[in-house]
Amino acid sequence: MDRSVHARKLRLDASRRIIAISDIHGNDALLKRLLQKVDYQPQNDVLLLLGDLIEKGPHNLQTLQTIRQLCAQGNAHALMGNCDFVCKNIVHRYNLDFLKKVLCTRKASLLHEMAARIHQTIDADTDMEQLCDALMASFSDELRWVDALPQIIHTDRYIFVHAGIKEEEHFGDDFREVLTYPHFLLHAPAFTRYVIVGHMPVSEYCHAIACFHPIIDERKHIISIDGANMIKKAGQLNALLIEDDRFSYESVDDLPLVRVRCDVAPRNQDPLFITWRESEVRILTRGTQRDECLHLSSGKRMWIDHAFLHERDGHWQADDFTTYQMPLQRGELVSLVSCYDRFALIKKAGILGWAHRAHLCL
Which SUPFAM superfamilies match (predicted)? Predict the structure, then answer.
């Protein structure tokens, strides 16, 4: 299988608005809501879908059909993401033992949906060669369409890629690099053209207060737009809008809205958000519903609800935990993420924080 990077050059009319969306993850309904919110007009706009089109969401096959229809209209273009690679696995019969392990733990998958359509299941006993034969017999067009997607789309002013690039002119030697570049915004150099990426949830770059809106780094010329849709409960699907070289964004999520009962003044002196990358904690004092913990990366002590604590490889982790108390105004609407005892995790304007349940109309 050819592992070279497949890049496609687009020549765009400068008057056209560019809409970039990444990490749809099989959430067809949310994609359609977002396109409606930004008033996508195929005859006037250019739509770029930056990979992870499928996998982990509820309607992968329908999402793929929607995206193929959008691309057939002529002004929409899709890229491959690392999650979309499952199609390449089937088409090229590549690394099938590993693919089986993934599918045995990932039930929300395009391949599970395809298998179900032909009255098959995928489990530890599945003959993967026979599965490839069966899926290619029934879904060859869909699988080959994803397999043929480029990994990079670039213009004179912008480079669109799922995870990242090694260099601006020489994008990379192996397409797996541009599909999986870890924490690109942290490690990449500065570029002359703007590089727009998904892959890594933007909240992973937050330390004090978590925000799920796109991050625009004007120094490095990097824009990270993955809002953690289908990856984190507080996640959202973001659209980056580029018009006359100006950037803006819109977002949608599946969270319910609740109304605020009373004003709550900000009280945070030194808030902390614990990312997956720096999630290790040491438990100091056990409690009935929460434990006192030491966050090893920051050195801060805090009480963490048991819902956020889990053990991984013999170490305690507490990723996606925040100490930020959200300031509130009576009558406003906020998104409800989860409830824990007397507290609620909420999101407002893309920002994650907690509130007392008594302050919300639950």
Answer: Metallo-dependent phosphatases (SSF56300)
